[in-house]
Design a protein that fits this description.
With 111 residues, this protein is an alpha/beta fold. Helices cover 16% and strands 41% of the residues.
Length: 111
């Protein structure tokens, strides 16, 4: 269950993969770049190289898959990736129930 793409996210990922002609069996790769007082920072990109020793794959709808490194998997359990296309926002949104959104230190002003 670890990483879940909403229907709008699946549609956008498929659209981007088709536009970019990414080759054989492309997938969305999710990484954690680091963490800090304002929470985890994520990276989304496309890849075609799956390494079974280090990676885990989550098949989504319509042949779309999300891959992450096994070392990140526990931190991403239950994470939902959505795609927003509104008057005020356009892009992918990541909701991770394991980590709060707000800043955690007094110097960040996130209280």
């Amino acid at each position: 269950m670890s990483i879940i793409l909403t229907d709008p996210a699946v549609n956008e990922v498929k659209k981007i993969m088709e536009e970019r002609e990414l080759g054989t069996n492309p997938f969305l790769r999710m990484s954690i770049l680091g963490g800090g007082c304002s929470g985890l920072q994520y990276s989304l990109g496309f890849d075609t190289e799956f390494h079974s020793k280090n990676d885990v794959k989550y098949e989504q709808k319509d042949g779309v898959a999300v891959v992450t490194q096994k070392k990140f998997d526990l931190h991403l359990e239950g994470t939902e990736i959505d795609f927003l296309n509104t008057e005020y926002a356009r892009g992918f949104s990541i909701e991770n129930p394991n980590y709060p959104k707000e800043a955690g230190c007094a110097g960040c002003g996130g209280h």
